[in-house]
Design goal:
- The chain has 2 domains: 17-82, 50s Ribosomal Protein L19e, Chain O, domain 1; 121-215, Non-ribosomal Peptide Synthetase Peptidyl Carrier Protein, Chain A, CATH 1.10.1200.240.
- Helix 1 (35-45) packs across helix 3 and helix 6 packs antiparallel against helix 7.
- The protein has helices spanning 35-45, 59-63, 68-77, 91-101, 115-118, 121-142, 147-158, 165-221; strands at residues 17-21, 24-28, 52-54, 80-82.
- By secondary structure, it is mainly alpha-helical.
- Strands 1-2 form a two-stranded antiparallel ribbon. The chain has a two-stranded antiparallel sheet with strand order 3-4.
């Protein structure tokens, strides 16, 4: 039995036959690959007709197959074979892509189109803005920033204030440090104000107490009026 792809028997002649009819040479291949048989076999095997190989030595038996069950039997017997899938190696493509990621093969001679056509600025802007907004949402969900700072940074990001994520993170740290410093100053001022108020109240109490004492002493030293 012959085999596909270079495994055919040497005794089987698969070369085209030449017939001279009325002075014309007609090239005819052996009628071993009937369209019906290949169509049925391809349907049963789940492939295309190009992937079906029919045994040239069993032409008659294959031609008599008129049902899918018979085709399955011929496939099981090896008279009909589904050719293997042609391998297309991507090793060279992977190697080239790895080199391009390192910057190779990207010189001026390899470029087609303008810089904006090769990488549109609109796409770069959308990618950068989405990165910044994802970071803001993540920080707000984690409680690292409050909703007020989130709202402020959201609009600053839209206004092209931050060129990359690192700049946004640094701005967040500075903003939080500044807010903490302002809160500390506010607390110190409140404490100083409360201390001053308490001291003023104590002084007022002392003054009032002294005034009350002086008023009481004056009342004691003042003689009572004589009775008539």
């Amino acid at each position: 039995m012959a085999r596909p792809h270079g495994l055919q028997d040497s005794n089987v002649n698969l070369q085209p036959e030449h017939h001279n009819v009325s002075g014309r040479t007609i090239h005819r291949r052996p009628s071993i690959t009937r369209s019906k048989d290949k169509r049925l076999a391809a349907s049963v095997a789940g492939s295309g007709k190009r992937k079906i190989w029919l045994d040239p030595n069993e032409t008659n038996e294959i031609s008599n197959a008129n049902s899918r069950q018979t085709i399955r039997k011929l496939i099981a017997d090896g008279l009909i074979i589904r050719k293997p899938v042609t391998m297309h190696s991507r090793s060279r493509a992977r190697e080239l892509n790895a080199a391009r990621r390192l910057g190779r093969h990207r010189g001026m001679g390899k470029r087609k189109g303008t810089a904006d056509a090769r990488m549109p600025t609109a796409i770069m802007w959308m990618r950068r803005l989405r990165v910044l907004r994802r970071l803001l949402v993540k920080y707000r969900a984690a409680g690292k920033i409050d909703k007020h700072l989130y709202h402020e940074l959201y609009h600053l990001s839209k206004g092209n204030t931050f060129k990359h994520k690192r700049a946004l993170v640094e701005h967040i740290h500075k903003a939080k440090a500044e807010k903490a410093r302002e809160q500390q100053i506010k607390n110190e001022m409140d404490a100083k104000r409360a201390k001053t108020k308490a001291a003023r109240e104590r002084r007022q109490e002392r003054v009032q107490t002294k005034r009350n004492q002086m008023t009481g002493e004056e009342e004691e030293t003042t003689p009572a009026p004589a009775e008539s």
